[in-house]
Amino acid sequence: MGFVKEFKEFAVKGSVMDLAVGVIIGGAFGKIIDSVVKDLVMPLISAVIGSVDFSNMYIVLKGTVDNGLALDKAREVPDTVIFAYGNFITVAINFLLLALAVFMLVKGINSLKRKQEAAPAAPAAPSREEVLLAEIRDALRSK
C-alpha cells in the first residue's frame, strides 16, 4: 500500500498536473504551428523559389529515377540512393517558427511577471496591537 499511496501523491501533485497540461497544450500548439508552416509559410516560400511541394524535393545520388517522380515512388525504385532534403527544409522551418512562438510566449509571461513584481504591494492593515500602541502613544502625547 505504501507504493500506491506514494504514487498517488506524486501523480496528483501540482507540478505533475501542470506538466500533463503543458504536454497536451504543447501537442495542440505543435499542430497549429505545423498548419502555419504547411498552409501559410511554405506556399509563400514555394512561390518565391518556384517549387510547389518541398516534401518532394530530392537529389538522386545513385541510380536513375524519372524526373518529377514523387519521393515515395522514387524511394521504391531499386538500387537508388536518394538525398531527400525537401522534408528537412519543411521540418526546420516548422521548428524555427515553433521556437519563435515559444520564445514570444515566454517573453510575454516574463514581462507580465516583472510588471507584477514591480507593482508596489498595498500596505498591510496595522495589527490590533499596533493600533492599540498608537492610541496609547497619542493619549500620552495629549497629556
UniProtKB/TrEMBL annotation:
Q: Name one GO cellular component term.
A: plasma membrane
Gene Ontology terms, MF aspect: mechanosensitive monoatomic ion channel activity
Q: Which NCBIfam families match?
A: mscL, PRK00567.1-4, PRK13952.1
HAMAP family on file: MscL
The UniProt subunit note reads as follows:
Homopentamer.
Q: What is this protein called?
A: Large-conductance mechanosensitive channel
Family label: Belongs to the MscL family.
Primary localization class, coarse: membrane
Functionally, this protein is described as follows: Channel that opens in response to stretch forces in the membrane lipid bilayer. May participate in the regulation of osmotic pressure changes within the cell.
Superkingdom is: Bacteria
